[in-house]
Amino acid sequence: MTDDRSELIDAELIAAERRLQAAQRAGDVAALDRLLHDRLVAVGPDGSRATKADDLRAHRDRTSVIEDLVEESLEVLVDGSTGVTFFLGTVRGTYAGEPFAARLRYTRTWVRDDHLGWRILAAHIGPVG
Q1: Which positions fall inside the DUF4440 domain (predicted)?
Q2: Where are the domains of the chain?
Q3: pTM, to two decimals
């Protein structure tokens, strides 16, 4: 792959990550539905597992509300149709009725489909001290 093509693919993945962040802040379930792979498995900071249906339900029912999400750094790694984003930032909101604020690292594995674009297949969220 040429450097120009590689940079374009990296930029597409960064744009997808930023669309995800915007959808999370807005509680935009339709946008999240497009960005999350149907087979999504996400592991939260407490070690719990969630599916795409779980995540969409939490945003739809407003049991997960992200009020503020500030990106400190974002790195991407792409190999073919697989990409990984490494997000570090602060997140503030409510979850299950309880307010939270934390500095978190999100590691997301994305797969690229020619028709659907980049979609998250797996994610891990961990607290950063």
Answers
A1: 13-120
A2: 3-127
A3: 0.91
